[in-house]
Amino acid sequence: MTDQHEAEPSAEPAGATAATATADGTGPPAPAQPRGRLTGRAIIHAVTEGHSTVITILAVFVALVIGAILIVASDPVVLRAWASFGYAPAAALSATWGSVAAAYSALFEGAIFSPATISAAFHGGSIAAVFYPLSLTAFEATPLILTGLSVAVCFRAGMFNIGAAGQWIGGALVATWLGYAVNLPIVLHAVVCIIGAFIGGAVLGWIVGVVKARTGAHEVILTIMLNYIMYNLLSFLLSSHNLMQAPGQTNALAPGLASSAMLPHVGGPPPQTGVGFLIALAAAAATAWLLSRSTLGFQFRTVGASPSAARSAGISVERVWILAFLIAGGLAGLSAATIVQGQTAPLTTNSYGTYGFDGITVALLGRARPWGVVLAGLLFGALDAGGTVMEAATGVPSDVVNVIEGLIVLLVAAPPLIRLLFRLRRTGGTGPQAVASKGWSG
Amino acid sequence: MKLELRGITKRFGSLVANDHIDLLVQPGEIRALLGENGAGKTTLMNVLYGLIQPDEGEILLDDKPVAIHSPRDAIRAKIGMVHQHFMLVPVFTVAENVTLGAEPVHRLATPEMHLGGLRVPPLGLPSIGLLDRREARRDVLELSERFGLRVDPDALVEDLPVGIQQRVEIIKALLRDASVLVLDEPSAVLTPGETEDLFRIMRELRAGGRSIIFISHKLKEVQAIADNVTVIRRGKVVGERPPSTSSIELASLMVGRSVQLRVSKEPARPGEVVLGVKDLSVHGERGEQSVRDVSFEVRAGEILGVAGVQGNGQTELAEALMGLRPSVGSVHLDGTDLSHASTRDRLRAGIGYVPEDRSEDGIVGEFSVADNLVLDVYDRPPYANGIALNLSAIRDSAATRVREYDVRTTSVDTPAGTLSGGNQQKVVVAREMGRDVKALLISQPTRGLDVGSIEFVHKRVVAQRDAGAAVLLVSSELDEIYALADRIAVMYEGQIVAFCPPTIPEQELGLLMAGSTGDGSGGSSPGSGPDGPGGGPETPAQEPSSHD
Amino acid sequence: MTTLTAPVRVPVSIGRRYLAAGTFIVLGLIDIFVFGIFAKRGDAVFALSLPGASPHLPAIHVPGALTSYVLGAISIGVGILRAVVDLPRWGKRLSIAVVLLCFLLSLLAWADAGNTVGPLQVIDLLQGTLTASIPLVLGALAGLLGERAGVINIAIEGQLLTGAFVAAAVASVTGGVWLGLIGGSLAGGLVGLILAIFAIMFLVDQIIVGVVLNVIALGLTNYLYDRVMSPYAATFNSGNTFNTIKIPVLSDIPIIGPIFFDANIFLYITYALILVIQIGLFRTRWGLRVRAVGEHPVAADTVGIRVLWTRYRNVILGGLVAGIGGAYLTVGSVGFFTSDISSGFGYIALAAMIFGRWTPLGSVAAALLFGFSFQLQTELSVLRVPVSSFILLMAPYVATIIAVAGLVGRVRPPAADGKPYVKA
Question: Does A294 touch chain B (CB under 8 A)?
Answer without folding.
Answer: yes
